[in-house]
Amino acid sequence: MILLDGKKLSEEILDEIAKKVDKIKKNNKKVPHLAAILVGNDGASETYVASKVKNCEKVGFNSTFIRLDADVSEQKLLETIQDLNENSDIDGFIVQLPLPKHINESKITDAILPSKDVDGFHPTNVGYLALGNPKFVSATPNGVMEMLKRYDIDTEGKYCVVLGRSNIVGSPMAILMSKNTKPGNATVTVCHSKTRNLIEFTSKADILIVAIGKPEFITSNMVKEGAVIIDVGIHRVADASKKSGFKLVGDVKFDEVAPKSSYITPVPGGVGLMTICSLLQNTLKATENSF
Ligand code: NAP
């Protein structure tokens, strides 16, 4: 079993981005600038946004953090997005999801200028991806592809099962794995909550990508011997032995699945770190597109 080390890879990628930023600065070109909007004070979202901003600083980007109250009106959020769309100093921006229930998420995603949509959620960017001409790809699936590429994992002709069909993870993941690319060219099945006999699919998968949001759902009897296991899930579960009172686990029961796998991502230290790298790579791309 080989651990797909998101920590090591992300350090490599952040270093590559930082070197490109140095070059940009030396050439007196525009320094990449990412803005992040956070609505409300959900603990997990705060942690994600803080980590994104911290990593911007690490690679030499400029960053702007916009915090709005949980009861902010949809109109005010749309106006904030419009300001960022029109601000030529901002190359890309994200609105951290999930949003409070009174705000229509798709209305918000649709309002972001596609050329600044570094999360890759806008229908224009999703359309480009579906057509095999990706511009900004959703950060998590993009991070998984980068991981498969850098570990030189053979995906061509392999049977890939993607568990979950969300717009931000499962669906774009399945599209990417099925495209005529390297990595890619897999034969893909998408499973979801209405799939019958899930185990019939998971236990045949050469590559199993799990994004269902259920802690330690995948057990060893559900996976094929020698499979590549990508665990996108991330959950805090109570653990009295930890000072914090919790530990992080994925959608896969790591301890029992790992010995059966050929490659596996840990949680933490796997896909999550790759997601942040993808966001920064997209932001750098947005800046370079403006040169
Ligand atoms: P989501 O929007 O809740 O989607 C979950 C998907 O899983 C849905 O398509 C759902 O099916 C399916 N599902 C739920 N229960 C199932 C079951 N028992 N069997 C088969 N399929 C089932 O979640 P998401 O946003 O894609 O995120 C998934 C997980 O990844 C979460 O743990 C999230 O925290 C994590 N995540 C991590 C990162 C990262 O950077 N590491 C980034 C994003 C998300 P239906 O469509 O039928 O409801």
Can you give me a brief rundown of this structure?
The protein has 10 helices and 11 strands. By secondary structure, the chain is an alpha/beta fold. Helix 1 runs parallel beside helix 10, helix 6 crosses helix 7 and helix 6 packs across helix 10.
CATH top level label of the largest domain: Alpha Beta
Helix fraction, binned, reads 25-40%
Lateral strand order in the biggest sheet: 1-11-8-7-5-6
**What does the radius of gyration come to?**
19 Å
Bound molecules: NADP nicotinamide-adenine-dinucleotide phosphate
Short descriptors:
single chain; 291 residues; alpha/beta; Rossmann fold; 2 domains; six-stranded parallel β-sheet; three-stranded parallel β-sheet; 40% helix; 16% strand; binds NADP nicotinamide-adenine-dinucleotide phosphate
Task: Please give the structural blueprint.
Layout: E1 2-3, H1 6-26, E2 33-39, H2 43-59, E3 62-68, H3 74-86, E4 92-95, H4 105-111, H5 123-130, H6 139-150, E5 159-163, H7 170-178, E6 187-191, H8 198-202, E7 207-210, E8 228-231, E9 235-238, E10 246-249, H9 254-257, E11 263-264, H10 271-289
Parallel strand pairs: 1-11, 2-3, 2-4, 5-6, 5-7, 7-8, 8-11
Antiparallel strand pairs: 9-10
Helix pairs in contact: 1-10, 2-10, 6-7, 6-10
The chain binds NADP nicotinamide-adenine-dinucleotide phosphate.
